[in-house]
Write a structure and sequence with these properties.
By secondary structure, the chain is of the alpha/beta class. The chain has three domains: 30 residues; 109 residues, Immunoglobulin-like (Sandwich), CATH 2.60.40.3500; 291 residues, Zn-dependent exopeptidases (Aminopeptidase, 3-Layer(aba) Sandwich). Helices cover 34% and strands 22% of the residues. The chain has 14 helices and 14 strands. The strands form three sheets. A six-stranded mixed sheet has the order 10-9-11-14-12-13, sandwiched between helices. Helix 8 packs across helix 14 and helix 12 packs across helix 14. The longest helix has 21 residues. It is globular, with a radius of gyration of 23 Å. It binds zinc ion (ZN).
Length: 453
Amino acid sequence: MSDKIALRMGRRRFLNFVGAALTLSVTPVGLAAGRNPTLLAVRVWPADEYTRVTLELDANVRFTHFTLENPDRLVVDIEGIEFNKALEGLSDKVAANDPYIKLLRAGRYKPDVVRLVMELKTRIVPQVFTLQPVGEYAHRLVLDVYPDTPVDPLLALLQQQSHSDYPLASEEIGIDDPDKTADKPTDKTTEKTNTAKPAETHIKTPATPAAKSAGKVNRLITITLDPGHGGEDPGAVGRGGNREKTVTLAIARRLKSKLERDPNVRVALTRDGDFFVPLGTRVQKARRVQSDLFVSIHADAWIKPEARGSSVFVLSEKGASSSAARWLAQKENDADLVGGVNINVKDPFLARTLLDLSQTVTKSDSLRLAKSVLGELGGVNRLHKSDVEQAGFAVLKAPDIPSILVETAFISNPEEERKLADENYQNQLAEAISRGIMRYLAQNPPPAKSPMA
Ligand SMILES: [Zn+2]
């Protein structure tokens, strides 16, 4: 329901009206209604991982696509759409620094066909697919442009690390074949062993009992932070127009820098920009970098503006701790529908992962981590519920990584929305979550990474 708070009601009514009219006309592409499908909006979401171009239309359309070489191009032919201003303005939507797209243009190719030509900066793997109306969106035709060598999260993390003083290099942990290592738990344990070594050499003074009791982390810890939503999926939107996806990224970036004050902690972000990442991909990214912890950052929303406070959730696959928690998990899981996942093709940089590992240890660790973070959040904000809550959040389903989801505050509450958008308050939230994580790590030192682990 919270997402509905955010809807631009006027437009939504308009779209519903159009949808109803099309239903009555009972045509596959809206042609026989005597009116061609109209392009409503074009959105481009550039990112290193992939660039997405979304065409939003008031009806379903037929399309074909193919690629050309020398120079590399993606061509999409769309049947029966009006050539309107939105199409004319297509080329302005592409930023000069887009990683993949050089130019996007459209022209009438045949009387009944509009041809989109995407000139590319590099060889790409395209995914072109449609999405049915959901939330505030009408029909969408999606053009995803992936590099033909997918971005590897582990390599990206190591490259980021190489800017710091860590003596880590990609060859030290053998990531030559990403698919091979991502597939098999045995490869994973090998990697874990190897990643531990550089961290040990980094620590100049050996961990003493005193250092341990002071909560010093004595091996390299990898934490994945997951800024909720992104790209096509704004998450909840406050009355003041602040979007959850913006707030979550800002807080996650602040949290990352706070956690990395400890030289034994390195942090990966599931997204470091405004683009959509499917929920399953977020989990896979955390596993790919051998995360010790996974923390998903969100901002809550409710129909009534009075709802307020911070909460922390862990996964429950046997029912939620409350109906509100169940509802919230469902809403967060709908991110894939809003953000737009191509159901015909698996995410191209994902390898299928075995998920039959035991979750017993992970669950109790998740709960301890959640309690620690909730306790610290209580110092900077009122708590929405005094206890950790549980529900079936898809993003918390890594079987081998303690995972929590933090609803920092209610973006649907005008006062909390203002605070969420405020840099100082974002820092306070990040500081509290950071303290909670570090306290958990001090009290529950992760086991040494060994082949027997
Ligand atoms: Zn959310």
